[in-house]
Amino acid sequence: MVDLSTKYMGMNLRSPIIAGSSGLTNSLQDLKEIEKYGAGAVVLKSLFEEEINIELQKQVAEMNRPGTLYPEIYDFFNYDDVEDSVSKYLFLIEKSKKVLNIPVIASINCVSASDWTGFAKRIEEAGADALELNLFILPSDFHRTIEETEQVYFDVVKSVKKEVKLPIALKTSFYFSNLGQMLMKLAK
Asked: Is the pTM higher than 0.85?
């Protein structure tokens, strides 16, 4: 048998095939199948910051609808809905680590540095072997310079690295005009 083992993000993989974040990496049964057919690692389906923010906005809009004149309404803000998405994701990490013999890489799709540093810590505590940050900022904001956009990337990576010891992979946009220089700065 040919030895296909390799290293990725400092982890030893039995195969260079990595199942990327997708609908196929969102269930324990599918993850077992992926491992069975030779993947060296799996990247769990990303948890999207936008999804969580939309859920929060819906709840706030509902509380602000006409007829809700009392500030006490905010006592009924349902943090459980938001926590439910996060808890399910952390549970998938924990279960995956118990049944798989390949590295499990968590994935966060984020657009800001806001709450992701604390969540990255929870991912580490759940047992993920590494963390993929999928950070995408549309270049259509004409009031933001390229330096300001790059700074968001730097801030996110710096914040997350401060919180966790996990290896971190960063997915960047193809919109950078000088990607090499950007990557050199990120490596520092």
From this structure: no
